[in-house]
Amino acid sequence: MKDKIEAARQELIETLDAFAPEIERVEETGRVIIECLRKGGKILSAGNGGSAADALHLAEEFSGRYKGDRPSLAGLCLSVDATVLTCIANDYGFEAVFSRQIEGLGRPGDVFVGFTTSGNSANLLRAFEVCRARGVTSILVSGGSGGKARALVDHAVLVPSRVTARIQEVHTFILHQWLEMVEAEDWTAPLP
């Protein structure tokens, strides 16, 4: 087992090294998130399975805190309310579980962050389409080429890997860097 763990560690190091050119995109999208929050907007997030956990991690850190004390910021994960998910899935199909929520909650100037290792999840593709129609800025956090979602979003941060575990590990790095950027800001002035 020790050899397998070491192989995974090496693979993660190689993935992080290959990810270095995307650091500029991490900073750029972090600025998009900060600008949204500064203007009183909200950050919506979603994903499926492990990516839902990443989406929830991001949202809870905005509402709560990451490291330091600051005002609560508007972060909402669309993957977590079982009653909403099952209602929408039952009435409209699972492909609509995120897009339907964006229709009700998303406003121009808000940001939607979709986590997907493949970039091909039907419910996220629909969510990104609704974002475009509603004026909600979209950020894709994915792996490989970003799949079909890449063509539907305003911004993309892509992990150069096809290994789900490595992609998700780097997704955590990405969202932590955004949180570092947010908490480096001065939030003492009241938000709109």
The CATH H-level superfamily is Glucose-6-phosphate isomerase like protein, domain 1
From the N-terminal CA to the C-terminal CA, the straight-line distance is 53 Å
User: With helices defined by DSSP (H or I, 4 residues minimum), what is the helix count?
Assistant: 7
The number of strands is 5
Indicate the low-confidence ranges by residue numbers. none
Looking at CATH, which topology would you report?
Answer: Rossmann fold
Strand content: 5-15%
Structural class: alpha/beta
What is the general shape?
globular
The main pleated sheet reads as: 5 strands, parallel
Q: Tell me what the CATH architecture is.
A: 3-Layer(aba) Sandwich
Summarize the structure in words.
With 192 residues, the chain is an alpha/beta fold. It has one domain (2-184): 3-Layer(aba) Sandwich (Rossmann fold). Helix content is 52%, strand content 13%. The chain has 7 helices and 5 strands; from the N terminus they run H-H-E-H-E-H-H-E-H-E-E-H. The chain has helices at residues 2-19, 23-38, 50-63, 82-92, 99-105, 122-134, 164-184; strands spanning 43-46, 75-77, 111-116, 137-143, 155-159. A 5-stranded parallel β-sheet has the order 2-1-3-4-5, with helices on both faces. The model has no long low-confidence stretch (mean pLDDT 97).
